[in-house]
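Subject: design request, 69 residues
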């Protein structure tokens, strides 16, 4: 599955805040940091763990627009 910085993704398990199951990718590298769109808390996990827990990509970030900013 192709995912990039600032994409909105859905994970298999809901965040304990129970406000949202959607997350925004805010850091990518060997580790990936995602931010809960319900409460704003962030979680850092290994790329392999992230890929196992990822359910689907909800919204792709506008990469062309971000590069020009």
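Subject: RE: design request

Done. Sequence follows.
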């Amino acid at each position: 599955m192709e995912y990039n910085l600032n994409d909105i993704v859905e994970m298999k398990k809901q965040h304990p805040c129970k406000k949202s199951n959607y997350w925004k990718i805010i850091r990518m590298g060997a580790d990936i940091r995602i931010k809960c769109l319900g409460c704003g808390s962030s979680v850092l996990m290994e790329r392999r763990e992230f890929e196992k827990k990822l359910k689907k990509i909800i919204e792709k970030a506008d990469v062309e627009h971000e590069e020009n900013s």
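The chain is about 20% helix and 40% strand.
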